[in-house]
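[09:14] KT: can someone run the structure on this one? pasting the chain below
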Amino acid sequence: MDILFHPLDAILGTPSKVRLLRELVPIERPVSGREAARLAGLSSYSIRALDELVEMGLVLRQEATGQHLFRLNRENYLAEVLSRLFMMERERTAAIFAALRDAVEECDHGAVLSAVIFGSAARGDAAPGSDLDLLVVTSSAAAAEEAYSRLVDTAPDLERRFGLALSPVVITQAQARAQISRDDPFLRAVLREGRLVVGAELSELLADETDEEDPG
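[09:31] RB: done, structure tokens below
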């Protein structure tokens, strides 16, 4: 491994290091190895990855009250580069959500009631080649057709800009309520793991009409 000429191979070539750096970049205070691992969603065994980042000079280690504390070495030449990289990563996510919002909001006012990302993208375990699953709930069948058409038109741009294959599912509120009344496993999964893009929360739209009546 060429740490002199190609240090990014060592830094970005291991998912655990990337995840640790992603969490350490915005934090000013030093944190324990256990806390760093927790923030990054890693096991305590990831301490070796932290040690390697220390050896590279990207992370500083200090001892306090009998434990090691870690923080990003902001004087390291690559620290600012990595900070910008993670910022661009966040901006990419925001741009994806914005593109989806723009597509559905082009429909007639009030036609799209909710748009929710579901599946592996919502769970945070999407792999290269995974679809970007999107559920859209509309007020009418005509609105569903329009929303689906606009999303199909948006799909090539999403793939070019972000490398994502959009897979939209568009149904009416009436269809969604009928499915949830049958305890539909698909909608139950979306309710459990979905991430709202625009509109009302799916749980609000799926509430039975009788639940919305004023008891008084």
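[09:33] KT: thanks! The first strand starts at residue 31 and ends at 32.
[09:34] RB: yep, looked fine to me
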